[in-house]
Amino acid sequence: MSKLKLIVTVALTVALSCFISLNLIRMYPSLIGYKQALTIKGGSMKPFLSPGDLILVGEAAPEDISVGDIITVDRPEGAFTHRVVEVKHFQGETYFRTKGDANNAPDPFMTPYKMVIGEVEEIIPTHIIFTPIGFILFLAFPFLAFSLNIFRSLLQESKKRSRRGLIKWRKGKMPVMSMASMLLLLITLASSANVLSPLMSSGSFTEFSDLEDVIAFITSGTWKKTHTAGIDIRPDTLKLTSGGDPITCHIFLEENLDIHSMKPTTIRIISYNRSELVNPIYAEDAAIEYDEDGDTILGLKVQFERASIVDSLLSAGFETDEKVEMSIEGLFINGDYLQGSDIIELENDG
Predict the structure, then answer these.
(1) Report for 64-68, 98-102, 107-111: range of highest mean pLDDT
(2) Secondary structure of residue 225 in the 3-state scheme
(3) Does residue 154 sit within a domain?
(4) Which pTM was predicted?
């Protein structure tokens, strides 16, 4: 066997073994002692985690999760992987405040332990497949090598072919070596497609070209963002057994956001303090707030029906003397999301 053929054979074997191993880990993480194997799709944890990385998530008791750990959670707005920046204990439950390493601010909500899938224990840096070098080593080179091997086998066979061999060729019989090479090629392509599929489905190939800003700009029309808003709920105390004025929420958006692009009818208030999702209450009325001179827009003033909020909290089992984190969610005309939260305290009537 020539040196070139030996190098090609070893390289193809390594590439094929890598893809098959990654597929087995993704499909059956329990075989190596993990709860789930997930592919990172976003860039909120860069540079520690990059889009395309494969993370192995293991079981973790609430007391074993501390500040600095990376956890994967499954919330109503979607699953994500962020770092724990705060741990709180409330009414016998453990809650975690999380933050993406690349984000400017923590996530605007506390996540109960029951929504935690597990803690990230191992990271396989498969994002290198989406770099130019990774593409050449793991995709382009194996494909080219397989193709050249098939062509080389056919060329050698044609030189040695006798008249009898020519007849077999015309009958459609291919050399065994060529058939094996084609089979290996198909297996490699299928395995690589399975590894790439999570990132392909998310539409995120920014790591592949190393021109992330350019691609993000080009595809910005289809990508949806979540904007963090400042929230001030008034009154900040609520009596569960008496009536009163509507609950007023003041929403302060980032300076570069157009307040007129917010849909008031899609703004809702919700609580994530319990593992059960409290029924959302949609805004009754919304108006733009200006400063005293009426020249500068401060934000949105949104009102919610008091009775609906009280009924929702009571149905979830909340009682007086509890503090509730209320999350405000909204939708912009372009499809982007708004999110923020504030704390209110439940009081007795006396």
Answers:
(1) 64-68
(2) coil
(3) no
(4) 0.48
For residue range 178-207, list pLDDT tens digits in order. 555 555 556 655 655 555 555 444 443 333
Q: How many helices (H) and strands (E) does the chain have?
A: 8, 17
pLDDT tens digits for 316-326? 677 777 888 88
Element spanning 324, H or E = strand 323-331
119 in any annotated domain: no
Asked if residue 124 is part of any domain, the answer here is no
- What are 84's two structure tokens? 């724990």
Long-range Cβ contact pairs of 16-21 (< 8 A, separation 24 or more): 16/142, 16/184, 16/187, 16/188, 16/191, 18/138, 19/138, 19/188, 19/191, 19/192, 19/194, 19/195, 20/187, 20/191
Beta bridge mates, 332: 262
As for how many domains the chain has, the answer is 1
- Chain centroid to Cα 310, Å, comes to 33
Q: Which domain holds residue 299?
A: 226-347
Environment class of 309 (CB within 10 Å of its CB; exposed 0-12, middle 13-18, buried 19+): buried
CATH of residue 281's domain is 2.60.40.10
Q: pLDDT of 259-285, one tens digit each?
A: 666 555 457 676 655 544 456 677 766
Nearest residue to 141 via CA among 129, 152, 153: 129
